[in-house]
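Morning!

As promised:
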Amino acid sequence: MARRKKLKSFFLGLLLLGFISFAPAAAPAIPAETPERPLLLKIAPPAEEVIRVVVAAGGTVVQDLRSSLLVSVPAAAVSRLRDEGLTFTSVGSPAPGDSYFLVQSKLPSPLLAQPGNIHCLLLEEGVWLLWTDNPDFRGWLIQPFRLKALRLAGGFPGRSAAMPPRTDEGAAESRARSVSVIQDLVAKVSLERLRTDILALQNFTTRYASTAPCEAAGDFILQRFGQLGLAAAADPFVFEWHYASRNIVAVIPGKAAPEHMVLVCAHYDSTSNYPLVSAPGADDNASGTAAILEMARILAAEKFNLSIGLLCVSAEEWGLYGSAHYAQEARQQGAEIIAVVNLDMIAYPGSRQRVLDVIGNRQSEWLADRFIAVAQPYVGLRLAKVIDASLTWSDHSSFWDQGYAALCGIEDSDNPYYHSTSDTLETLDLAFATEAVQASLAAVAELAQPVTSLAAPTGLQAQSQISASLFASVKTVFLNWQANPDPVAGYHVFRAEKSGGPYLRLTAQPTTGTSFKDSLLASDRNYFYVLTAVDGQGRESNYSGEVRDDENN
Amino acid sequence: MRTINVKFYRRRAFWPALFLGLFFVSLPAVTGAVEKPRQRFFIGLAAGYLYPQQGDFREIYSKAIWPVELQLELAVGRKISVFSAARYMETSGNTVLLFPGQPAEAYALNWRMATLRLGVNYRLSSSRFVPFVGAGASASFYREQWLDAPLTTEGRKAGFFVQAGGRYRLQRRWHALVQLEYASVPAGSGPRGQVNLGGLSLFLGLLAGIF
């Protein structure tokens, strides 16, 4: 009896224990406090107002494109976007573990087949969104393709207009010509040195990021910068969870405003159809890397008012990882990069006319204009401006994402050896590459403002007055400045409608006095002025400080 | 209602006008003649002096403005007549500074305005001297030109006017005319605020009765 009682107690206890154990599961479910998964949306048009609405709703812009925006927003904010009158299509909610890429492909589908764990969506002509948890997804992509890894959060601060450098637009050509320093620099570009460096980079067999030869190529670049006496460093980063590589960066410090930097960059990694075995990448992108080395050699011997950054990035072929790392760090550290010139494939003009495309987005258009205006007089090849936010397949795009003004200089041709083991030195046109380097060198030097022996004018003051009739009014601006301590032939006066330029030269010939009157201006806007001094040989100083028309009223 | 500036009395046109006005007003009393007008349709020419209503106008166009006018008038009743007139005026001036005290820059200006007027007069008597009051609407075509710069403003604005005056029969057909008028021609906004091209004007003229 006692035994039965014990057995009964045992089972009762077991039942109680079971009840206690299962009680939480049986109880009504309490929602777990997990963060809400965002939604990816495609919104058109890619307007500033749309970005403001998205950001106000707690979203971020993942990618700015030619005709649309890819944005990430909290699911709860979707109704708010609809209330604001935005039209969008939902791409879905990113699953944990999925990686997102932008794929540039001219094919009807970028995939060989459609495996279940690789998803593709056409965003606009030639631009696909790909997401997958398959680390070997590249094997499913049809060549040729170009990749950009996307960051779904925190990468894109919006479109901040980078500060244009203090240089004039309208008179850029004549100014660039007049600066003998730039002429001298351009004349120093050596075709033979480009050939030697491209060959040296090609001889690493492969520079596929994550491989030892690629790291050796990084060491080679680091060593070359060091030989020029530049402060150079490796900038390591990790990509796709466990791969590592390094950007190589050197700086020529500016004399007057070293905090402002003009950055010229190129990726030194390569790829091919057998990337682990052979990826010579002579055009893509030993040519751009050799350009950086040649520009470093020439620029290191000169002095500039602004700093010049020389950046060789890695893992571009994997999805712009190196430049994305550098640009994000630069933005976080508040680096004042006023312009980025990215060189990617500059040695294969093809059989068509010799054209170097200068690619920018809407915020970088001023830089493309500036590059062409300054550089075109020095070269025979044609510089062609292309403004298209969807051309995101090279490292300039990483800088666009961080709100910097950036452009890409690239040959206007389809290299048949692209991403193949046949992309070798023998296929290249080094005369074309030399001119591309000369153009880039002229533009970078102009942007960084060479220190010339002629001192810039000082003491510029401006007063403005508005003359009115019954129905109309005009503004007159009175400028005066201190006489230059150096012997000068005169001064050129420049005006801009925005602070920082672009400036338009107002004086056909240097004015000899120390005052200037600018008449018949619109009375409802402000104007900004700078001066240069010109000596007897026609050499021009750098710009004076800028003044606003009513600064001394 | 704006008061007439003291300077106005110093204008040289005022005294002849006052003299003529008093002369015409006193004539009926002197002659004692009371005659009915013999004509119903009149054509006349008048000239006068304009005192612009707006201070900005007077500041920019500080020279005297002497408008001339061609009038046509038709009596449509014993007391009522309708009239139309074409008026032209031109003057010159200089721009003014919005912020005095800064370095100065002035531009020469030219101002022209043609006005078509249509109105009704009410005759207060039928004697040899006929005082009248009237009112009407106007359409003004103006042109402001900067002589030193490629800037010209042209426009067309409607306005209204009220007037009072008198007509004195000199001979069988000929009548002398004196007329005081206030006109308003709002012309939108300019750099210094709203613009009105009207003002106070005094006209003297001669009318001829045609039939």
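The longest helix of chain B spans residues 14-31.

Hope this helps with the figure draft.
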